Amino acid sequence: MFGCECFWWNNNNINNTEPSQLYSSFAEPQPFSLPAPLPDWPQGGAFSSGRISLGQLEVVKITNFERVWCCTQGFTFYRPLEIPDGFHCLGHYCQSNVQPLRGYVLVAGETALEPEPEANHYSSNSPVSESPALRKPINYSLIWSAESPDGGCGYFWLPNPPAGYKAMGIVVTSIPDEPDVEEVRCVRKDLTEVCETCDLLITMDSKFSKNSFHVWNTQPYRRGMLGRGVAVGTFFCSTYADSGIVFDIACLRSLDSTLHAMPNLSQIHALIKHYGPTMYFHPDEVYLPSSVQWFFKDGALLYSQGSEKGKNIEYDGSNLPSGGTNDGLFWIDLPTDDDARDNLKKGNIESAKLYVHVKPALGGTFTDIAMWVFCPFNGPATLKVGLLNIEMSKIGEHVGDWEHFTLRVSNFTGELWSMFFSQHSGGEWVDAFDLEFIEGTNKPIVYSSKHGHASYPHEGTYLQGISISRLGIGARNDAAKSDIVVDSSTKYEIVAAEYLGAVEEPCWLQYMREWGPSIVYDSRSEIDKLIDMLPVFVRFSVENLFELFPTELYGEEGPIGPKGKANWLGDEICS
After folding, report:
1. Closest C-alpha to 277, from 453, 457, 452
2. Is this model's pTM higher than 0.85 or not?
3. Domain ranges in the chain?
4. How do residues 93-129 score in pLDDT, each as one tens digit?
Protein backbone atom coordinates (compact mmCIF):
# COMPACT_ATOMS: atom_id res chain seq x y z
CA MET A 1 0.00 0.00 0.00
CA PHE A 2 1.22 3.52 -0.80
CA GLY A 3 2.45 5.73 2.02
CA CYS A 4 3.10 9.44 2.25
CA GLU A 5 6.79 8.94 1.67
CA CYS A 6 6.09 7.81 -1.91
CA PHE A 7 5.52 11.36 -3.14
CA TRP A 8 7.12 14.73 -2.49
CA TRP A 9 5.14 17.79 -3.54
CA ASN A 10 6.44 20.93 -5.21
CA ASN A 11 6.45 23.35 -2.30
CA ASN A 12 7.58 26.49 -4.16
CA ASN A 13 4.28 28.17 -3.42
CA ILE A 14 4.71 27.40 0.29
CA ASN A 15 8.30 28.65 0.52
CA ASN A 16 7.28 31.98 -1.01
CA THR A 17 4.21 32.44 1.18
CA GLU A 18 3.98 34.72 4.20
CA PRO A 19 3.37 32.82 7.48
CA SER A 20 -0.01 34.53 7.97
CA GLN A 21 -1.10 33.49 4.48
CA LEU A 22 0.15 29.96 5.05
CA TYR A 23 -1.85 29.74 8.26
CA SER A 24 -5.00 30.98 6.58
CA SER A 25 -4.70 28.39 3.82
CA PHE A 26 -5.10 25.66 6.47
CA ALA A 27 -7.65 27.51 8.62
CA GLU A 28 -11.06 25.88 8.86
CA PRO A 29 -13.61 27.82 6.75
CA GLN A 30 -16.63 29.00 8.72
CA PRO A 31 -20.16 28.12 7.59
CA PHE A 32 -22.12 30.75 5.66
CA SER A 33 -25.70 31.72 6.28
CA LEU A 34 -27.87 34.31 4.56
CA PRO A 35 -28.15 37.71 6.29
CA ALA A 36 -31.76 37.18 7.43
CA PRO A 37 -33.70 34.11 8.63
CA LEU A 38 -35.79 32.22 6.10
CA PRO A 39 -39.56 32.64 6.37
CA ASP A 40 -42.03 29.82 6.75
CA TRP A 41 -42.81 29.09 3.12
CA PRO A 42 -46.43 28.46 2.13
CA GLN A 43 -47.39 24.79 2.34
CA GLY A 44 -47.82 22.50 -0.64
CA GLY A 45 -45.95 19.69 -2.37
CA ALA A 46 -42.44 18.70 -1.32
CA PHE A 47 -40.84 22.12 -1.76
CA SER A 48 -38.52 22.94 1.18
CA SER A 49 -39.36 19.63 2.85
CA GLY A 50 -35.70 18.59 3.11
CA ARG A 51 -36.07 15.48 0.94
CA ILE A 52 -36.63 15.03 -2.78
CA SER A 53 -37.73 11.86 -4.54
CA LEU A 54 -36.03 11.13 -7.86
CA GLY A 55 -38.23 8.11 -8.55
CA GLN A 56 -36.47 5.02 -7.19
CA LEU A 57 -34.12 7.10 -5.06
CA GLU A 58 -34.77 9.70 -2.41
CA VAL A 59 -32.05 12.25 -1.72
CA VAL A 60 -31.17 14.57 1.14
CA LYS A 61 -28.78 17.51 0.97
CA ILE A 62 -25.99 17.37 3.58
CA THR A 63 -24.17 20.57 4.52
CA ASN A 64 -22.46 19.37 7.73
CA PHE A 65 -18.98 18.02 7.15
CA GLU A 66 -15.96 16.51 8.86
CA ARG A 67 -12.55 17.65 7.63
CA VAL A 68 -10.47 14.81 6.22
CA TRP A 69 -7.41 16.47 4.67
CA CYS A 70 -6.14 19.93 3.68
CA CYS A 71 -3.64 20.42 0.84
CA THR A 72 -0.94 23.06 0.45
CA GLN A 73 -2.96 24.78 -2.29
CA GLY A 74 -5.49 25.89 0.34
CA PHE A 75 -8.27 23.40 -0.35
CA THR A 76 -9.91 21.07 2.14
CA PHE A 77 -11.59 17.71 1.53
CA TYR A 78 -14.58 16.71 3.65
CA ARG A 79 -16.81 13.74 4.35
CA PRO A 80 -20.52 14.35 5.08
CA LEU A 81 -21.90 14.02 8.62
CA GLU A 82 -25.34 13.44 10.15
CA ILE A 83 -26.54 11.16 7.37
CA PRO A 84 -30.14 10.09 8.10
CA ASP A 85 -30.90 6.42 8.73
CA GLY A 86 -31.48 4.54 5.50
CA PHE A 87 -29.38 6.99 3.45
CA HIS A 88 -25.84 6.53 2.18
CA CYS A 89 -22.89 8.70 1.24
CA LEU A 90 -22.12 8.89 -2.50
CA GLY A 91 -18.77 10.71 -2.33
CA HIS A 92 -16.78 13.42 -0.57
CA TYR A 93 -16.71 17.20 -0.95
CA CYS A 94 -13.92 19.71 -1.71
CA GLN A 95 -13.70 23.50 -1.51
CA SER A 96 -11.29 26.41 -1.08
CA ASN A 97 -10.33 27.60 2.40
CA VAL A 98 -10.57 31.26 1.40
CA GLN A 99 -14.36 31.13 1.09
CA PRO A 100 -17.01 30.29 3.68
CA LEU A 101 -18.00 26.65 4.06
CA ARG A 102 -20.84 26.69 1.57
CA GLY A 103 -21.32 23.42 -0.22
CA TYR A 104 -23.32 20.24 -0.14
CA VAL A 105 -23.34 16.62 -1.13
CA LEU A 106 -26.42 14.52 -1.70
CA VAL A 107 -26.93 11.28 0.19
CA ALA A 108 -29.32 8.71 -1.23
CA GLY A 109 -31.74 6.08 0.00
CA GLU A 110 -33.90 3.63 -1.89
CA THR A 111 -37.62 4.21 -2.13
CA ALA A 112 -40.44 1.82 -2.84
CA LEU A 113 -41.99 4.29 -5.28
CA GLU A 114 -42.23 3.19 -8.88
CA PRO A 115 -41.30 5.68 -11.64
CA GLU A 116 -44.22 7.84 -12.74
CA PRO A 117 -45.93 6.90 -16.01
CA GLU A 118 -44.90 9.04 -18.95
CA ALA A 119 -46.60 12.41 -18.61
CA ASN A 120 -44.14 14.99 -19.91
CA HIS A 121 -40.56 15.52 -21.00
CA TYR A 122 -39.21 14.46 -17.58
CA SER A 123 -40.61 10.95 -17.81
CA SER A 124 -38.37 7.98 -18.46
CA ASN A 125 -39.06 5.10 -20.80
CA SER A 126 -36.51 2.91 -19.00
CA PRO A 127 -37.99 -0.32 -17.60
CA VAL A 128 -37.96 -0.75 -13.83
CA SER A 129 -35.05 -2.97 -12.85
CA GLU A 130 -35.31 -5.63 -10.15
CA SER A 131 -31.72 -4.91 -9.09
CA PRO A 132 -31.29 -2.67 -6.06
CA ALA A 133 -30.82 1.01 -6.82
CA LEU A 134 -27.75 1.20 -4.55
CA ARG A 135 -24.90 -1.24 -4.02
CA LYS A 136 -21.57 -1.16 -2.23
CA PRO A 137 -18.42 -0.81 -4.35
CA ILE A 138 -16.40 -3.96 -4.93
CA ASN A 139 -13.24 -2.20 -3.74
CA TYR A 140 -11.28 1.00 -4.42
CA SER A 141 -8.45 2.11 -6.69
CA LEU A 142 -5.88 4.55 -5.32
CA ILE A 143 -5.69 7.49 -7.74
CA TRP A 144 -3.16 9.66 -5.93
CA SER A 145 -1.59 10.38 -2.56
CA ALA A 146 -0.17 13.63 -1.27
CA GLU A 147 1.51 15.19 1.72
CA SER A 148 1.16 18.72 3.10
CA PRO A 149 3.25 20.35 5.87
CA ASP A 150 0.41 20.77 8.39
CA GLY A 151 -2.33 18.71 6.82
CA GLY A 152 -0.73 15.26 7.03
CA CYS A 153 -1.29 12.80 4.21
CA GLY A 154 -4.18 12.57 1.81
CA TYR A 155 -5.23 9.56 -0.26
CA PHE A 156 -7.72 9.71 -3.12
CA TRP A 157 -9.78 6.61 -3.90
CA LEU A 158 -12.09 5.80 -6.80
CA PRO A 159 -14.86 3.32 -5.87
CA ASN A 160 -14.94 0.34 -8.25
CA PRO A 161 -18.65 -0.33 -8.85
CA PRO A 162 -20.30 -3.69 -9.54
CA ALA A 163 -21.29 -4.38 -13.14
CA GLY A 164 -24.25 -2.20 -14.14
CA TYR A 165 -23.52 0.48 -11.51
CA LYS A 166 -21.68 3.81 -11.46
CA ALA A 167 -19.59 5.56 -8.83
CA MET A 168 -20.82 9.04 -7.86
CA GLY A 169 -17.70 10.56 -6.36
CA ILE A 170 -14.25 10.20 -4.85
CA VAL A 171 -13.38 9.11 -1.29
CA VAL A 172 -10.51 10.80 0.57
CA THR A 173 -8.70 9.33 3.58
CA SER A 174 -5.83 10.45 5.80
CA ILE A 175 -4.40 6.94 6.16
CA PRO A 176 -3.04 4.59 3.48
CA ASP A 177 -5.52 1.80 4.23
CA GLU A 178 -8.19 1.21 1.60
CA PRO A 179 -11.57 2.62 2.72
CA ASP A 180 -14.32 0.35 3.95
CA VAL A 181 -16.82 -0.59 1.23
CA GLU A 182 -19.52 0.67 3.61
CA GLU A 183 -18.23 4.24 3.16
CA VAL A 184 -20.19 4.92 -0.05
CA ARG A 185 -22.74 3.45 -2.38
CA CYS A 186 -22.73 3.12 -6.15
CA VAL A 187 -25.90 3.79 -8.16
CA ARG A 188 -27.55 1.58 -10.75
CA LYS A 189 -26.55 2.85 -14.17
CA ASP A 190 -30.08 3.58 -15.44
CA LEU A 191 -30.53 5.98 -12.50
CA THR A 192 -27.53 8.05 -13.50
CA GLU A 193 -26.67 10.73 -16.06
CA VAL A 194 -23.40 11.63 -17.72
CA CYS A 195 -21.51 14.35 -15.87
CA GLU A 196 -18.72 16.72 -16.85
CA THR A 197 -15.99 18.61 -15.08
CA CYS A 198 -16.32 22.30 -14.31
CA ASP A 199 -14.30 24.72 -12.19
CA LEU A 200 -10.76 23.38 -12.06
CA LEU A 201 -9.97 23.61 -8.34
CA ILE A 202 -6.44 22.25 -7.90
CA THR A 203 -3.42 21.26 -9.95
CA MET A 204 -0.59 19.57 -8.04
CA ASP A 205 2.80 18.44 -9.33
CA SER A 206 5.07 15.67 -8.08
CA LYS A 207 8.85 15.36 -8.40
CA PHE A 208 8.47 11.59 -8.69
CA SER A 209 5.90 11.56 -11.48
CA LYS A 210 5.61 13.25 -14.85
CA ASN A 211 1.85 13.49 -14.37
CA SER A 212 0.04 16.24 -12.53
CA PHE A 213 -2.96 15.75 -10.27
CA HIS A 214 -6.13 17.73 -11.03
CA VAL A 215 -9.32 18.25 -9.04
CA TRP A 216 -12.57 19.56 -10.56
CA ASN A 217 -16.12 20.18 -9.50
CA THR A 218 -18.68 18.27 -11.54
CA GLN A 219 -22.10 19.01 -13.04
CA PRO A 220 -24.58 17.19 -15.28
CA TYR A 221 -23.57 17.28 -18.93
CA ARG A 222 -27.16 17.97 -20.05
CA ARG A 223 -28.62 20.89 -18.14
CA GLY A 224 -31.43 23.37 -18.51
CA MET A 225 -35.18 23.24 -18.09
CA LEU A 226 -35.52 19.81 -19.73
CA GLY A 227 -32.41 18.25 -18.20
CA ARG A 228 -32.89 15.43 -15.70
CA GLY A 229 -29.32 15.31 -14.40
CA VAL A 230 -28.93 15.99 -10.67
CA ALA A 231 -25.63 17.34 -9.33
CA VAL A 232 -24.39 15.25 -6.40
CA GLY A 233 -22.01 17.93 -5.08
CA THR A 234 -18.98 15.66 -5.22
CA PHE A 235 -15.72 16.28 -7.06
CA PHE A 236 -13.64 14.37 -9.60
CA CYS A 237 -9.87 14.00 -9.71
CA SER A 238 -7.40 12.39 -12.07
CA THR A 239 -3.82 12.47 -13.32
CA TYR A 240 -4.78 13.68 -16.78
CA ALA A 241 -5.53 17.32 -17.47
CA ASP A 242 -8.33 16.96 -20.02
CA SER A 243 -11.57 18.48 -18.80
CA GLY A 244 -14.99 17.60 -20.16
CA ILE A 245 -17.17 14.49 -19.98
CA VAL A 246 -16.26 12.16 -17.11
CA PHE A 247 -16.59 8.40 -17.50
CA ASP A 248 -15.41 7.18 -14.08
CA ILE A 249 -18.20 8.84 -12.08
CA ALA A 250 -21.71 10.06 -12.90
CA CYS A 251 -24.51 12.36 -11.73
CA LEU A 252 -27.91 11.19 -10.56
CA ARG A 253 -30.92 11.09 -12.85
CA SER A 254 -34.40 12.18 -11.83
CA LEU A 255 -37.23 9.93 -12.99
CA ASP A 256 -39.85 12.06 -11.26
CA SER A 257 -42.18 13.40 -13.95
CA THR A 258 -44.28 15.37 -11.45
CA LEU A 259 -41.47 17.69 -10.34
CA HIS A 260 -43.10 17.47 -6.91
CA ALA A 261 -40.34 19.49 -5.20
CA MET A 262 -40.81 22.54 -7.43
CA PRO A 263 -42.62 25.49 -5.82
CA ASN A 264 -46.30 26.11 -6.45
CA LEU A 265 -47.61 29.53 -7.44
CA SER A 266 -48.03 30.84 -3.89
CA GLN A 267 -44.53 29.63 -3.01
CA ILE A 268 -43.11 31.39 -6.10
CA HIS A 269 -44.66 34.67 -5.00
CA ALA A 270 -43.23 34.14 -1.50
CA LEU A 271 -39.77 33.47 -2.94
CA ILE A 272 -39.83 36.61 -5.07
CA LYS A 273 -41.12 38.69 -2.15
CA HIS A 274 -38.27 37.39 0.03
CA TYR A 275 -35.39 37.31 -2.48
CA GLY A 276 -36.40 39.80 -5.20
CA PRO A 277 -33.26 41.85 -5.96
CA THR A 278 -33.09 45.61 -6.09
CA MET A 279 -31.68 46.90 -9.39
CA TYR A 280 -29.49 50.00 -9.19
CA PHE A 281 -29.05 51.95 -12.41
CA HIS A 282 -26.00 54.14 -12.97
CA PRO A 283 -26.44 57.74 -11.73
CA ASP A 284 -25.69 59.01 -15.26
CA GLU A 285 -28.03 56.55 -16.98
CA VAL A 286 -30.34 58.20 -19.52
CA TYR A 287 -31.71 55.05 -21.19
CA LEU A 288 -33.94 53.63 -18.47
CA PRO A 289 -36.18 50.56 -18.45
CA SER A 290 -39.92 50.53 -19.00
CA SER A 291 -42.72 48.02 -19.12
CA VAL A 292 -43.35 46.37 -22.47
CA GLN A 293 -46.87 47.80 -22.44
CA TRP A 294 -45.56 51.38 -22.04
CA PHE A 295 -43.17 50.78 -24.94
CA PHE A 296 -46.03 49.67 -27.19
CA LYS A 297 -48.46 52.35 -26.03
CA ASP A 298 -45.98 55.22 -26.43
CA GLY A 299 -45.18 54.64 -30.06
CA ALA A 300 -43.20 51.50 -30.88
CA LEU A 301 -43.93 50.30 -34.42
CA LEU A 302 -43.97 46.89 -36.08
CA TYR A 303 -42.26 46.73 -39.48
CA SER A 304 -42.39 43.93 -42.00
CA GLN A 305 -40.17 43.10 -44.93
CA GLY A 306 -41.22 44.98 -48.08
CA SER A 307 -43.17 47.66 -46.19
CA GLU A 308 -41.71 51.08 -45.47
CA LYS A 309 -44.39 52.09 -43.00
CA GLY A 310 -44.64 50.66 -39.50
CA LYS A 311 -47.85 49.64 -37.75
CA ASN A 312 -48.91 50.54 -34.24
CA ILE A 313 -48.65 47.69 -31.76
CA GLU A 314 -51.58 46.79 -29.54
CA TYR A 315 -51.07 47.43 -25.82
CA ASP A 316 -50.82 43.69 -25.07
CA GLY A 317 -48.92 42.82 -28.25
CA SER A 318 -51.84 40.81 -29.60
CA ASN A 319 -51.21 41.94 -33.20
CA LEU A 320 -47.55 40.84 -33.18
CA PRO A 321 -46.76 37.73 -35.27
CA SER A 322 -46.75 34.75 -32.89
CA GLY A 323 -44.44 31.74 -32.80
CA GLY A 324 -42.14 30.57 -35.54
CA THR A 325 -38.50 31.59 -35.69
CA ASN A 326 -36.55 34.77 -36.25
CA ASP A 327 -36.81 34.73 -40.06
CA GLY A 328 -36.07 38.44 -40.55
CA LEU A 329 -39.55 39.18 -41.88
CA PHE A 330 -40.59 41.37 -38.95
CA TRP A 331 -38.93 43.77 -36.52
CA ILE A 332 -39.86 46.49 -34.05
CA ASP A 333 -38.54 50.06 -34.25
CA LEU A 334 -38.97 53.47 -32.65
CA PRO A 335 -41.42 56.04 -34.10
CA THR A 336 -40.16 58.26 -36.92
CA ASP A 337 -41.02 61.54 -35.20
CA ASP A 338 -37.84 62.83 -33.53
CA ASP A 339 -39.48 63.98 -30.28
CA ALA A 340 -41.46 60.75 -29.89
CA ARG A 341 -38.34 58.76 -30.74
CA ASP A 342 -36.23 60.55 -28.11
CA ASN A 343 -38.97 60.17 -25.52
CA LEU A 344 -39.21 56.42 -26.10
CA LYS A 345 -35.43 55.99 -25.90
CA LYS A 346 -35.41 57.37 -22.35
CA GLY A 347 -37.75 54.67 -21.06
CA ASN A 348 -40.15 55.04 -18.16
CA ILE A 349 -38.85 53.91 -14.78
CA GLU A 350 -42.29 54.27 -13.13
CA SER A 351 -43.77 51.57 -15.36
CA ALA A 352 -40.73 49.28 -15.30
CA LYS A 353 -41.10 45.77 -13.92
CA LEU A 354 -39.26 42.45 -14.01
CA TYR A 355 -40.73 39.69 -16.19
CA VAL A 356 -40.31 36.37 -14.42
CA HIS A 357 -39.73 32.92 -15.90
CA VAL A 358 -39.71 30.09 -13.34
CA LYS A 359 -38.19 26.78 -14.39
CA PRO A 360 -36.66 23.61 -12.94
CA ALA A 361 -32.89 23.27 -12.76
CA LEU A 362 -30.67 20.24 -12.13
CA GLY A 363 -33.47 17.71 -12.40
CA GLY A 364 -35.91 19.67 -10.27
CA THR A 365 -33.66 19.88 -7.21
CA PHE A 366 -33.29 23.63 -7.76
CA THR A 367 -35.61 26.35 -9.06
CA ASP A 368 -34.32 29.01 -11.43
CA ILE A 369 -36.19 32.31 -11.20
CA ALA A 370 -35.09 34.22 -14.30
CA MET A 371 -35.99 37.92 -14.07
CA TRP A 372 -35.99 39.84 -17.36
CA VAL A 373 -35.78 43.63 -17.63
CA PHE A 374 -36.69 45.54 -20.80
CA CYS A 375 -35.09 48.82 -21.87
CA PRO A 376 -36.38 50.52 -25.04
CA PHE A 377 -32.87 51.61 -26.01
CA ASN A 378 -29.26 50.54 -25.51
CA GLY A 379 -26.97 53.59 -25.49
CA PRO A 380 -23.59 54.08 -27.17
CA ALA A 381 -20.45 52.44 -25.83
CA THR A 382 -17.52 54.04 -24.08
CA LEU A 383 -14.18 52.53 -25.09
CA LYS A 384 -11.28 52.39 -22.68
CA VAL A 385 -7.70 52.36 -23.95
CA GLY A 386 -5.29 52.68 -21.06
CA LEU A 387 -6.11 55.91 -19.24
CA LEU A 388 -8.20 57.21 -22.13
CA ASN A 389 -11.99 56.92 -22.18
CA ILE A 390 -13.58 57.62 -25.54
CA GLU A 391 -17.36 57.99 -25.77
CA MET A 392 -18.68 56.67 -29.07
CA SER A 393 -21.47 58.54 -30.84
CA LYS A 394 -23.19 55.49 -32.38
CA ILE A 395 -21.22 52.30 -31.74
CA GLY A 396 -23.15 50.03 -29.37
CA GLU A 397 -26.57 51.62 -29.91
CA HIS A 398 -29.61 49.47 -30.65
CA VAL A 399 -33.36 49.47 -30.10
CA GLY A 400 -34.92 47.04 -27.64
CA ASP A 401 -32.58 45.74 -24.95
CA TRP A 402 -33.43 42.57 -22.99
CA GLU A 403 -31.20 41.69 -20.03
CA HIS A 404 -31.77 39.35 -17.10
CA PHE A 405 -30.48 37.86 -13.90
CA THR A 406 -31.43 34.51 -12.37
CA LEU A 407 -31.95 33.40 -8.77
CA ARG A 408 -31.13 29.73 -8.17
CA VAL A 409 -33.02 28.43 -5.13
CA SER A 410 -32.55 25.06 -3.43
CA ASN A 411 -35.77 23.06 -3.47
CA PHE A 412 -34.60 21.17 -0.37
CA THR A 413 -34.85 24.25 1.86
CA GLY A 414 -35.98 27.24 -0.21
CA GLU A 415 -32.57 28.81 0.37
CA LEU A 416 -31.02 31.14 -2.22
CA TRP A 417 -27.96 29.24 -3.40
CA SER A 418 -26.45 31.34 -6.19
CA MET A 419 -27.28 34.00 -8.75
CA PHE A 420 -26.53 34.46 -12.45
CA PHE A 421 -25.72 37.92 -13.79
CA SER A 422 -26.32 38.32 -17.53
CA GLN A 423 -23.65 40.43 -19.24
CA HIS A 424 -24.37 40.95 -22.94
CA SER A 425 -23.60 37.63 -24.71
CA GLY A 426 -22.50 35.81 -21.53
CA GLY A 427 -22.48 36.26 -17.79
CA GLU A 428 -21.36 34.74 -14.51
CA TRP A 429 -22.70 32.64 -11.63
CA VAL A 430 -22.03 34.15 -8.21
CA ASP A 431 -22.37 32.19 -4.95
CA ALA A 432 -24.69 33.65 -2.34
CA PHE A 433 -21.78 34.47 -0.02
CA ASP A 434 -20.32 36.79 -2.70
CA LEU A 435 -23.51 38.80 -3.17
CA GLU A 436 -24.37 42.20 -1.75
CA PHE A 437 -27.71 42.37 0.06
CA ILE A 438 -30.07 45.14 1.06
CA GLU A 439 -29.31 45.59 4.76
CA GLY A 440 -31.33 43.32 7.04
CA THR A 441 -32.79 41.30 4.17
CA ASN A 442 -31.97 38.41 1.84
CA LYS A 443 -32.59 40.60 -1.22
CA PRO A 444 -29.47 40.79 -3.41
CA ILE A 445 -28.32 43.96 -5.14
CA VAL A 446 -27.95 44.09 -8.93
CA TYR A 447 -25.95 46.86 -10.59
CA SER A 448 -27.06 47.68 -14.14
CA SER A 449 -24.25 49.04 -16.30
CA LYS A 450 -24.48 52.49 -17.87
CA HIS A 451 -26.09 52.45 -21.35
CA GLY A 452 -25.62 48.68 -21.85
CA HIS A 453 -27.72 47.43 -18.87
CA ALA A 454 -25.53 44.39 -18.20
CA SER A 455 -25.93 43.03 -14.66
CA TYR A 456 -23.11 42.95 -12.10
CA PRO A 457 -22.90 41.89 -8.45
CA HIS A 458 -20.73 44.82 -7.33
CA GLU A 459 -20.00 48.43 -8.23
CA GLY A 460 -17.05 49.09 -10.52
CA THR A 461 -15.82 49.35 -14.09
CA TYR A 462 -15.85 46.10 -16.07
CA LEU A 463 -14.15 45.79 -19.46
CA GLN A 464 -15.91 43.88 -22.21
CA GLY A 465 -13.84 42.24 -24.92
CA ILE A 466 -10.22 41.12 -24.99
CA SER A 467 -8.43 43.08 -22.30
CA ILE A 468 -4.70 43.79 -22.38
CA SER A 469 -3.68 44.05 -18.75
CA ARG A 470 -0.93 46.64 -19.30
CA LEU A 471 -3.14 48.97 -21.32
CA GLY A 472 -6.64 48.09 -20.08
CA ILE A 473 -8.37 47.98 -23.44
CA GLY A 474 -12.06 47.19 -23.84
CA ALA A 475 -15.61 48.50 -23.83
CA ARG A 476 -16.48 50.01 -20.46
CA ASN A 477 -19.34 48.72 -18.35
CA ASP A 478 -19.73 51.15 -15.46
CA ALA A 479 -21.87 50.04 -12.53
CA ALA A 480 -22.70 52.25 -9.55
CA LYS A 481 -25.40 52.96 -6.97
CA SER A 482 -27.89 55.75 -7.45
CA ASP A 483 -31.42 56.78 -6.55
CA ILE A 484 -32.66 55.15 -9.77
CA VAL A 485 -33.88 51.73 -8.64
CA VAL A 486 -36.39 49.02 -9.46
CA ASP A 487 -37.39 46.71 -6.61
CA SER A 488 -38.13 43.36 -8.22
CA SER A 489 -39.70 41.99 -5.03
CA THR A 490 -42.72 44.20 -5.66
CA LYS A 491 -42.52 45.21 -9.33
CA TYR A 492 -42.70 41.95 -11.24
CA GLU A 493 -44.97 39.84 -13.41
CA ILE A 494 -44.75 36.06 -13.72
CA VAL A 495 -44.94 35.43 -17.46
CA ALA A 496 -44.03 31.73 -17.67
CA ALA A 497 -43.73 28.62 -15.53
CA GLU A 498 -44.25 25.73 -17.93
CA TYR A 499 -44.10 22.99 -15.29
CA LEU A 500 -47.13 24.46 -13.50
CA GLY A 501 -49.34 24.71 -16.58
CA ALA A 502 -51.26 27.46 -14.80
CA VAL A 503 -49.51 30.64 -15.95
CA GLU A 504 -51.01 32.39 -18.98
CA GLU A 505 -48.17 33.72 -21.09
CA PRO A 506 -48.62 37.24 -22.53
CA CYS A 507 -49.04 37.67 -26.27
CA TRP A 508 -45.81 39.64 -26.68
CA LEU A 509 -43.78 36.76 -25.22
CA GLN A 510 -44.70 34.66 -28.28
CA TYR A 511 -43.11 37.25 -30.61
CA MET A 512 -39.94 35.48 -31.77
CA ARG A 513 -38.60 38.12 -34.14
CA GLU A 514 -36.36 41.12 -33.54
CA TRP A 515 -37.17 43.85 -31.01
CA GLY A 516 -35.08 46.32 -32.98
CA PRO A 517 -33.81 46.80 -36.55
CA SER A 518 -30.46 45.43 -37.66
CA ILE A 519 -27.73 48.08 -37.60
CA VAL A 520 -24.30 48.27 -39.22
CA TYR A 521 -22.18 51.06 -37.76
CA ASP A 522 -19.63 53.18 -39.58
CA SER A 523 -17.11 51.81 -37.10
CA ARG A 524 -13.98 52.51 -39.12
CA SER A 525 -14.45 56.29 -38.96
CA GLU A 526 -14.93 56.20 -35.19
CA ILE A 527 -11.99 53.85 -34.70
CA ASP A 528 -9.84 56.12 -36.88
CA LYS A 529 -10.66 58.99 -34.54
CA LEU A 530 -9.78 56.83 -31.56
CA ILE A 531 -6.39 55.87 -33.03
CA ASP A 532 -5.55 59.51 -33.64
CA MET A 533 -6.04 60.17 -29.92
CA LEU A 534 -3.58 57.48 -28.84
CA PRO A 535 0.07 58.18 -28.03
CA VAL A 536 2.36 56.95 -30.80
CA PHE A 537 3.95 54.26 -28.64
CA VAL A 538 0.60 52.53 -27.97
CA ARG A 539 -0.93 53.12 -31.39
CA PHE A 540 -2.53 50.18 -33.16
CA SER A 541 -3.52 49.62 -36.72
CA VAL A 542 -7.24 49.81 -37.42
CA GLU A 543 -7.37 46.07 -38.06
CA ASN A 544 -5.58 45.17 -34.82
CA LEU A 545 -7.70 47.52 -32.74
CA PHE A 546 -10.88 46.05 -34.17
CA GLU A 547 -9.84 42.68 -32.77
CA LEU A 548 -9.62 43.99 -29.21
CA PHE A 549 -13.27 44.95 -28.84
CA PRO A 550 -16.38 42.74 -28.78
CA THR A 551 -17.70 42.13 -32.28
CA GLU A 552 -21.22 43.35 -31.42
CA LEU A 553 -19.88 46.90 -31.20
CA TYR A 554 -19.45 47.01 -34.97
CA GLY A 555 -22.96 45.96 -35.91
CA GLU A 556 -26.14 44.87 -34.19
CA GLU A 557 -28.79 42.49 -35.31
CA GLY A 558 -32.03 43.39 -33.60
CA PRO A 559 -32.21 41.57 -30.26
CA ILE A 560 -34.79 38.82 -29.87
CA GLY A 561 -37.10 38.48 -26.87
CA PRO A 562 -36.61 36.25 -23.82
CA LYS A 563 -38.31 33.17 -25.26
CA GLY A 564 -35.98 33.16 -28.26
CA LYS A 565 -32.84 33.13 -26.10
CA ALA A 566 -30.88 29.90 -25.66
CA ASN A 567 -31.17 30.06 -21.88
CA TRP A 568 -34.98 29.99 -21.99
CA LEU A 569 -34.78 26.20 -22.28
CA GLY A 570 -31.08 25.72 -21.65
CA ASP A 571 -28.74 26.56 -18.82
CA GLU A 572 -27.22 30.01 -18.42
CA ILE A 573 -24.27 30.77 -20.71
CA CYS A 574 -21.15 31.89 -18.86
CA SER A 575 -18.62 34.23 -20.44
Report:
1. 457
2. yes
3. 50-112+133-253, 265-564
4. 999 999 999 999 999 999 875 544 444 444 445 555 6
